[in-house]
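Re: that backbone. Tokens:
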């Protein structure tokens, strides 16, 4: 069933992001820079929580993965060999009347979305973002920002192999920025020209590609539902047909998500064959000692957009209830795990105890402190940014050493001993 586009909901999410410090328009005091965004104090916590969870799950907790962190600008020969300089293009059309330019496949119908004018025939536009490296600006000093993190995993393949002595199958992972001179960016952080990816290049023998593809398909599904908390019914798989896949791919599945603005790509899973390693290495870079042969490993590539993860998580978490707005984030993703309040601001003994609890919890968690207004308002404020637990220090605390802990989702309160707080919160960080 096709879900309805909810642009009002999208506006509310964008407004909350700005108001509470998740995501700001980039360079705002200078009038902004088209489709650039900055993550604020809460946004960077949410984004880092997603990246850290991903790294832990897909790199640290597995025996068959290692990570790298490569340079954003690589030798231009990398992009010649990878085919990006020639093939990394999108079809561009221009309005004959207002001269605005659009990505052809994003235009509905055949008229200009801005003025209704007639559009030109499509021509291929290269998405690589150029700059100059060094003090001389000429053709020789042109370099490109990477359009995907993936290529470094291929280029560094031999170095990683020589230093880690891995055997097939194994993967190399990386999290980092990528740049594309998108023709039609838009939908908040959905399509921007500077964004972040979490990518895995998983190296295998050719015969194993189908079952490995299936293994990663399940891994990606589990990541989306179990770790990010997305609903299965909002996730859709699209088997990308021939002619529409990237130039290196023999099979691609796009995982699409029902964003408030419609069903659009969240992640991709591709079978890149031995295309990249063959282009970068004259000799097969891997030796199968047991079989006594050298070979070019084949590659399955699960690719995750960080910003689209943030957007999907926010879309899923945003709820309006009777008298509150609440972000029902998975506790592990929440920017603050807990907020600490003294019941009354003008009682020094309560404030002192609350500060003590706050500083102690800060050793283990990201914690907020709030002493403004009444407790109800403080709950409301924390609900809106997704803080799963609020701890209030009152007069009984000073007598008995226990505090009121209020749960964001159930809105229920219980008394917990201060000495048990750490364990209590840890136990709920799912
Ligand atoms: N290495 C393979 C690759 O880059 P892709 O489908 O072009 O494949 C992978 O990109 C993921 O990167 C996408 O599924 C999406 O999550 C994210 N992504 C791509 N372009 C983006 C953009 N302009 N803005 C934000 N995220 C983007």
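Recovered sequence:
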């Amino acid at each position: 069933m096709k879900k309805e586009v909810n642009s009002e909901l999208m506006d509310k999410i964008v407004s909350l992001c700005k108001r509470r410090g998740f995501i700001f328009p980039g360079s705002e005091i200078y009038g902004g820079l088209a489709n650039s965004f900055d993550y604020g104090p809460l946004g960077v916590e949410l984004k880092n929580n997603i990246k850290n969870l991903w790294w832990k799950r897909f790199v640290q907790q597995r025996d068959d993965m290692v990570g790298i962190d490569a340079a954003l600008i690589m030798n231009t020969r990398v992009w010649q060999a990878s085919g990006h300089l020639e093939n990394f293009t999108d079809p561009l059309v221009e309005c004959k009347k207002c001269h605005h330019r659009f990505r052809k496949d994003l235009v509905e119908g055949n008229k200009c979305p801005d003025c209704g004018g007639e559009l030109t025939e499509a021509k291929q536009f290269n998405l690589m973002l150029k700059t100059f490296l060094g003090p001389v600006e000429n053709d020789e000093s042109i370099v490109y920002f990477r359009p995907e993190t993936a290529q470094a995993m291929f280029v560094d393949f031999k170095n990683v192999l020589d230093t880690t002595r891995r055997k097939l199958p194994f993967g190399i992972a990386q999290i980092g920025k990528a740049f594309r001179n998108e023709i039609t960016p838009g939908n908040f952080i959905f399509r921007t020209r500077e964004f972040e990816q979490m990518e895995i290049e998983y190296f295998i023998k050719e015969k194993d590609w189908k079952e490995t593809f299936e293994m990663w398909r399940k891994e990606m599904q589990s990541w989306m539902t179990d770790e990010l908390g997305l609903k299965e019914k909002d996730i859709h798989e699209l088997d990308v047909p021939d002619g529409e896949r990237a130039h290196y791919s023999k099979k691609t599945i796009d995982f699409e998500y029902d964003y408030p603005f419609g069903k659009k790509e969240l992640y991709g899973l591709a079978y890149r064959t031995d295309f990249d390693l063959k282009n970068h290495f004259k000799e097969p870079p891997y030796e199968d000692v047991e079989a006594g042969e050298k070979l070019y490993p084949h590659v399955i590539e699960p690719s995750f957009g960080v910003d689209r993860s943030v957007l999907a998580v926010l879309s899923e978490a945003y709820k309006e209830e009777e008298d509150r707005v609440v972000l029902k984030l998975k506790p592990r993703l929440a920017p603050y795990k807990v907020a600490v309040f003294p019941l009354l601001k003008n009682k020094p003994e309560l404030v002192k105890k609350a500060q003590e609890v706050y500083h102690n919890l800060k050793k283990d968690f990201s914690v907020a402190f709030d002493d403004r207004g009444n407790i109800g308002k403080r709950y409301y404020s924390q609900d809106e940014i997704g803080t799963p637990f609020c701890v209030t220090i009152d007069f009984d605390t000073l007598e008995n050493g226990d505090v009121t802990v209020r749960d964001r989702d159930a809105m229920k309160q219980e008394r917990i001993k201060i000495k048990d707080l750490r364990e209590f919160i840890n136990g709920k960080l799912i």
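The mean pLDDT is 96. The chain has 13 helices and 24 strands.
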